[in-house]
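Supplementary Note 3. Input sequence used for the single-chain structure prediction.
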Amino acid sequence: MQSVKGKGNRLERRLWALLAGCHLRGWKKNVEGILGKPDAAFINQRVAVFVDGCFWHGCPHCRRKLPETNREYWETKIKRNVERAQRYNEQLRQDGWVVVRIWEHEMDDTGMVSARIIRALESRGAYDDTI
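The predicted structure, written as discrete structure tokens, is reproduced below.
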């Protein structure tokens, strides 16, 4: 597990490239001061974007197989990750944020992902399609 990168991993880099490719402005990477350290955040619009790995966050669509060794540890770890994400979502929403959570497997459909982010920005009156 030491080799698992917490910041700047492949998924995050794909998200950042997608945001740049959509010519969206005003977002920041891995924002430390926001609960959960979103992978990207539009601070002025209060939109937080997270990309969750299917294995690490227990994707119900992928249902990735757990390692055979130390299975109880992995079940507990993934369950904690899921619960933490739910707590962060609730708290961020209470604090006035729009939360966008994207599954790893959804990153293959960049059109859908960008549309979800743009909808979140539009809900804040913060997206101008002429950009």
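Strands lie at 27-29, 40-42, 47-52, 98-103. The domain at 10-123 is CATH 3.40.960.10 (Endonuclease; Chain A).
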